[in-house]
């Protein structure tokens, strides 16, 4: 049989262990960036493809459109093949058209469109690229 | 378990609870991105599209301790102006940003002032044991006895890239600052209220406004003023407006007159950066002594370009083009390139024999002619003429630089801000705008010359006594591009028979069989200057040197050249066309003329 | 005392492991330490706790060694056991010193440079040894990090020797020590980290180095910076090999050299006010 004092000590130890584990967890998890600001100083011309920090800015007839360069299949970085004017996954061979449409598998979805906005203050195009 | 352990456990638990409560309820739970500075400071505007606050934060440029909580810790080692060359290797030049640039800029003429220092240490009273090569060396050195360096410290050292920015009003407050000296759009007010969270941050730019160049380049050669069509006048402030001095004002209580500006400014609205390349301005990493060694453009770079050459720095051209949002993008990279290999990515072949320039600041297209009229520009007898010799409409000429040093009083130096004995008083004899005097430039071409500088130095010691041994006269003529380019050039007589242009000075010139007979207008010795020749005479009528050239390789026309130039002057009143047949075999035509055989002989007195 | 020193080492080890989740010995180390301290939850607490437990380990190991020195344990135990104790005590200095470098601030960087240059002063072996301690340039912090977090702790664990049979040290004082250190860590602020570019007239190394720092102003770096600090430790280490007839003398020489070190330390603190903030 445990004495009252032993029970109290165990309880206290558990509390100390719990709270210390909590603060260790909070510290160890850290707070990394959840997204990245990518910026293009100049709009692309029609048919032109610009790349910066994991995102593509493509000049289409209806205006510029931004894509994440991560393949929707397993996250490899898509390369732009200028000769044939489409995006290509170097890992598993998926292909996408300039406007992000899926041309060839194994990817099931189209390229991820990113939110594109024009910064009036400096005239640059800004993209918020989620990192997760 | 012992009692002490239990008490310790309770204390530990209390500490943990205290920590958790403080963290959860009293703190900003997630760290600010990208650094802690934004907790207290938030610029109202972005700095530039390439320097987004969300990407770089503040501490990438302003250093300090970006995540410290307390103000004094966070601000430890903070740099107010990251462009300051004292810090630029850590800020603008940090790895991954512009690592090569601070090292290049530190060696460039605008940072070293090597030319000015060398000239002064050679021509002024100076103790060679105190000699320095560049401004930075001078800043580090203690103040010595050299009169040359004393003058530099107190009168010249206000314009160089090592100069920190000071919160002063007017032009002085806008000068200096290293990278930021050029690369910012100045704010209307020079101070910021940083106690408020939101404030205006100066905008960074590569489309450098000409005003940034002009805040320094408006004295001495005054090329900035001349380019924009302003001539520094005498300080009367005339014509008066509303009963007081006029509004055509320059810094330092000076005034100006409106003159024709440079054709590149007048017709094309071009800025300094439309011609001057990044290598020409920021240097190429080599140390040069003189401006003309570093500047890497000439007129023919654009007006008679060699577009066939292999463009070596395509990557740089593409980068510069991409960085300038106002420039149209080109799929084919064909552009003008400077003799040193700098890409002038904004100047491209145009339709036909024309060229196109896209202004760097707004991208406006300017179509311009390549070099035309080969009979004029390729005439063999004018092959030594530089473009500036004919196409400089006028040149500001500041005659007589009277420098007096009073050791009784003291004056603040520009480099360190300290005061020490020796006060300089400076004044000129007179200032003129006129066609330039021509002479032989260091590169062997005929080009414009102007006074630079004609020093009359007088020194008075601590007791107020004149010190003849450290007083001197040093009259120098310097060649430079006055930046007053005009499409039209003077007619033949305008040069061949103009005593001022020939280097003799203002006066009456007679060409006789025995030689040149010249009577000057300005009588220097009677004016108390202590010299026997007028201030505007570079050379005597007999061809002897009167004033030193600013470079050993430069010189005025010699006696033989003067004779040849003025001899043609006898023919050009009638034969004033380049394609006149007498010039194709001039010696023969002349002997015919002298023998009385020429068709025009009877008409000439 | 040994148990307490062991506890202190354990705390330092655990907090070190925790800290290393958010510490990078490359790139802008100052900025990452600044972020770790300033903005990561409980970062400042863990850093202070790590610092304090490291200091506690150093002081308690000293106390442990002193205790056995005064009890003249070296007369009875095997010479290698005694040497292990002295070596352990000796290693606590480089352990704390490398930790000082890893702060990445101006003091840390300069301490690293001084360590590198002192090592180079050693005849013949110098440059090779220096290359093992630190690589100037981009990987400045990499080798000190390796020594601080892997090699030296492993050696310390090995040297714990006769205490190693148990996983945890004996005795209930551990909780008390931890409560004491945690209390200090919560309320005692660390000295400010000076950004690396800041120009200062006075930079102080770790506190136990101040006496040597003072001597380095006057003496030859090898004699004063390398050999002299090793003398008292070396004499201490060979005590158990000395014949008992000479032991009395040897003991006094050890005491005198240690007292000299302490005197220099005190002189440094008196002469150079920047050393104690």
Question: In a nutshell, what does this entry contain?
Answer:
The complex is a heterotrimer of chains A (132), B (605) and C (277). By secondary structure, chain A is α+β, with helices and mostly antiparallel strands. Helix content of chain A is 20%, strand content 33%.
What's the count of strands of chain A?
Answer: 11
- Count of discrete structural domains of chain A: 2
The portion of residues assigned to helices of chain C is 55-70%
Shape of chain A: elongated
Query: What value does the Rg of chain C take, in angstroms?
Result: 19 Å
Biggest pleated-sheet summary of chain C:
none
The overall strand count of chain C is 0
What is the CATH architecture annotation of the largest domain in chain A? 3-layer Sandwich
Question: What keywords describe this structure?
Answer:
heterotrimer; A: 132 residues; alpha+beta; Rieske Iron-sulfur Protein; 2 domains; four-stranded antiparallel sheet; 1 helix; 20% helix; C: 277 residues; mainly alpha; Cytochrome Bc1 Complex, Chain C; 11 helices
Provide an overview of this structure.
The complex is a heterotrimer of chains A (132), B (605) and C (277). With 132 residues, chain A is an alpha+beta fold. Chain A folds into two domains: 1-31; 35-130, Rieske Iron-sulfur Protein, CATH 2.102.10. Chain A has one helix at residues 4-29; strands at 35-40, 49-52, 55-60, 63-68, 79-81, 86-88, 95-96, 102-104, 113-114, 116-118, 125-130. In chain A, the strands form three sheets. Chain A has a four-stranded antiparallel sheet, with no helix packed on it. In chain A, strand 2 (49-52) and strand 3 (55-60) form a beta hairpin. With 605 residues, chain B is α+β, with helices and mostly antiparallel strands. Chain B folds into four domains: 1-30; 34-211, no CATH class; 272-297 and 305-370, no CATH class; 382-491 and 500-506 and 523-558, no CATH class. Chain B is built from 25 helices and 20 strands. In chain B, strands 13, 14, 15, 16, 17 and 20 form a six-stranded mixed sheet that branches. A three-stranded antiparallel sheet of chain B has the order 5-7-6. A three-stranded antiparallel sheet of chain B has the order 10-11-12, with no helix packed on it. Chain B is globular, with a radius of gyration of 30 Å. By secondary structure, chain C is an all-alpha fold. Chain C has a domain at 2-193: Up-down Bundle (Cytochrome Bc1 Complex, Chain C), CATH 1.20.810. Chain C is built from eleven helices and no strands. In chain C, helix 3 packs across helix 8, helix 4 crosses helix 5 (106-120) and helix 10 (221-237) packs across helix 11. The mean pLDDT of chain C is 87. Chains B and C meet through helix 1 of B and helix 2 and helix 8 of C.
